[in-house]
Amino acid sequence: MPTSFSTLIDHYAAGGSALRPAIASLTRDDCLARPGPGDWSIQELVIHLADSDQIAADRMKRVIAEDNPTIIGFNESLFIANLFSDEQSLDDAVTVFEANRRQMTRILRRLDAAAFTRTGSHNEAGTLTLTDLLRIYIDHLEHHLTFLFQKRERLGKPMG
Question: Which of 8, 70, 124, 141 is the most interior residue, by most CB within 10 Å?
């Protein structure tokens, strides 16, 4: 496997341990507050990350295992609004996120270079390769962690 794929996988894997420290020392009230930026609370943001990471793993597995599978988009706002995000366990969501990243990393590390060019057809974004999906979900976590850190700042609880 070329170094670039290995580096991408390493970056993806490292994201698995980024979420727990990002919410360390926050109270339930902190996590349910809406200090901005954005409309979501930290609780909702973390639940979204757990949900979307499971969807990402499903998408990547389909691209690996099936020939040009259909990849369906989802409405993240409806997931947050209708799946009782404020009542879910934040600890469980982080645990699921961590375990999902570890499991998917094991799969990714076993693949040859050709697997990273395999494609799926997203109903909104068009053709995506496994490499595209990997990059999207690396960036997705970083994007949302930026919001989470900004929310912590506004709560007066910046990262150490």
Answer: 141
CB 38 within 8 A of CB 147: yes
Q: What is the DSSP string of 141-158?
A: HHHHHHHHHHHHHHTT--
Q: For residue 30, how many other CB atoms are within 10 A of its CB?
A: 18
pTM, 2 dp: 0.95
Q: Helices 3-15 and 130-154 sit at what angle, rounded to 10 degrees? A: 40
45 CB burial (10 A radius; 0-12, 13-18, 19+): buried
User: By the 8 A CB rule, do 76 and 52 touch?
Assistant: yes
* Structure token digits, residue 20: 């727990």
- Determine phi and psi for 106, rounding to 5 degrees: -60, -40
Two tokens at 157? 């609880």
pLDDT in tens, 43-97: 999 999 999 999 999 999 999 999 999 999 999 999 999 999 999 999 999 999 9
